[in-house]
Amino acid sequence: xxxxxxxxxxxxxxxxxxxxxxxxxxxxxxxxxxxxxxxxxxxxxxxxxxxxxxxxxxxxxxxxxxxxxxxxxxxxxxxxxxxxxxxxxxxxxxxxxxxxxxxxxxxxxxxxxxxxxxxxxxxxxxxxxxxxxxxxxxxxxxxxxxxxxxxxxxxxxxxxxxxxxxxxxxxxxxxxxxxxxxxxxxxxxxxxxxxxxxxxxxxxxxxxxxxxxxxxxxxxxxxxxxxxxxxxxxxxxxxxxxxx
Amino acid sequence: xxxxxxxxxxxxxxxxxxxxxxxxxxxxxxxxxxxxxxxxxxxxxxxxxxxxxxxxxxxxxxxxxxxxxxxxxxxxxxxxxxxxxxxxxxxxxxxxxxxxxxxxxxxxxxxxxxxxxxxxxxxxxxxxxxxxxxxxxxxxxxxxxxxxxxxxxxxxxxxxxxxxxxxxxxxxxxxxxxxxxxxxxxxxxxxxxxxxxxxxxxxxxxxxxxxxxxxxxxxxxxxxxxxxxxxxxxxxxxxxxxxxxxxxxxxxxxx
Lengths: 244, 255
Prior knowledge:
heterodimer; A: alpha/beta; four-stranded antiparallel β-sheet; 9 helices; globular; B: mainly alpha; MetI-like fold; about 0% strand
């Protein structure tokens, strides 16, 4: 049974269709990169996985639980799905330590000491142990995103969702974030990653999903995707972003 | 000009005219402070309601705001004091007008009863709540939507997201406009004189009528109002500095 499974997911904003029968899956330990031109529905799709974006048709099953089912306890489900956002979304009024412990204490019910210990260990892992008492506004974008990854990991997630984690970063900060993600992938974390970083995809992805106009156009292994994408749209996309 | 007039014995209350001014100041502060508590609590609840995904809560919040901010404060004062006791069951109306005044004898030479005071506080509080609600709503809505998403994504409930994420930042952002609302409540408290609350403006007018020293009476009131509002401004600035978020640009660190 896959960790994340999407079956014919469709979504409309009013009469405008943003997702059209999207089906794919992420197995345990698998890294799936979702790419495609802007406006293709990638972010909407990944936000549907943990119920941040409602959808009207189809089904999403995460760890055996149906996300769209109104009876599903979404907070409980989300507690174990880490998510990293394009704009980091650290909480600006909390110190880095408090950012790392909020969910552990309020959602998982850990003691403050346990949470701090866990949070600081992860902060050390992303190379920012010395920043524990700072506030998000005092860190660079790359540092903030590494803290955000540590924050997600502090909840002991069974899978991680990344929504364009490097798109808001200056070029020199992209690698420090990708390095953390590569390491995570190599440790066997289940990951669904919306990104334009094809270098990352080549390095650690098992599969690549290519979206255009709300549809999944390609869903194949990394080698197939970079070797010979079958659709014209994927070829056009790759030739645009790989020419540099 | 004759400033010594304030040291003359006033015709009632067993005090000087200066005593009248003090009494007026006390009741201005009492009405404003009590009304502010109502405005802050009710305004926060209504403002939050207008930002929730719950359609019925948004509707009730919007209805509240539009009802209370679109009727002149003076009219609302009359509605609470003169009309409300007549439209509720007779026994309740009678209780308000006849029994409530004797629950508590008001201190500081008040020449009015607990009923006038309560009507003024409730009216001013609920009116200002509609304005506070709009500030709270705008503060919450000025935050990136991703903040709420990030809170929900880590498993917090919507209520926990408000408690730990959006309200702490939202309230910080609206400190400047909330300062204005807080000042306005002190100034608007003067409308309470129309239902018999002898606050600062009423006492000044009374002094002017008894002594014919109109200039002195209202100059004194003006200066006292300015002293009160300047104090509020200084307190709110201190609060703003105290809760400033390190490194948060929108908050500014230059003042």
